[in-house]
Amino acid sequence: MPGTLTSVRLRVLLPLAVGIAVLLAACTREDPPRLPGTLERDRIEIAAEASEPITAIEVREGERVEAGRVLLRQETQLAEARAALAAAEARLKEITLSNERLIVRAPQAAIVDALPYEVGERPPQGGTIAVLLADTAPYARVYIPEPLRVRVRPGSRALVYVDGREDPLPGTMRFVSSEAAFTPYYALTQRDRSRLSFLAEVEVTDPRARDLPVGVPVEVELIEVGRE
Fold first, then answer.
1. Most distant pair of Cα atoms in the chain: their distance
2. pLDDT tens-place string over residues 50-59
3. pTM of the entire structure?
4. Rounded Cα gap, residues 152 and 183, in angstroms
């Protein structure tokens, strides 16, 4: 009887002990950290070659354009120069080259984000006359808390949670600043107010992110950091 009773106790207590050990291990595992931020695209600002009136706008804001697409045109004095200076071939060639520079083209495939001037307006030389967003994978801009900085490096994998989407999108850390700054206002919590942080960019590699708008709030889960 004592042997039988001991055997019964072992069969009851052994699974219980294993369950408690698994529960304790789960409680001590570090959860992957999540960081708030915004979704962004690289901005491309195109400067005016000359202070001439805009004569035509060939695209709309929000439209996708291919590299080389004409965005807008500025007034040129090419016709007047040909009539008045027919004998001045060197001058004519110079104006012809200038005229080509006044046809503003998209330098790469992009989304037209802003056209600050209307037809007839005269932008200053060097002023921005078109703003494009690179039609490539967007990236999440976040700030890495100082205690996590040594554990984060370019190439680290992450999950990007976008407001309005239930499922996260895979991402890859493409840049981490080497210069510390104070945590920005939208990322502040009561315990983070005095902490330093490092600007970082996480490229969203999933093709579904191509049509996501910039500026939407995101959270980035540093999955590889959580596993260390």
1. 124
2. 888 888 999 9
3. 0.61
4. 17
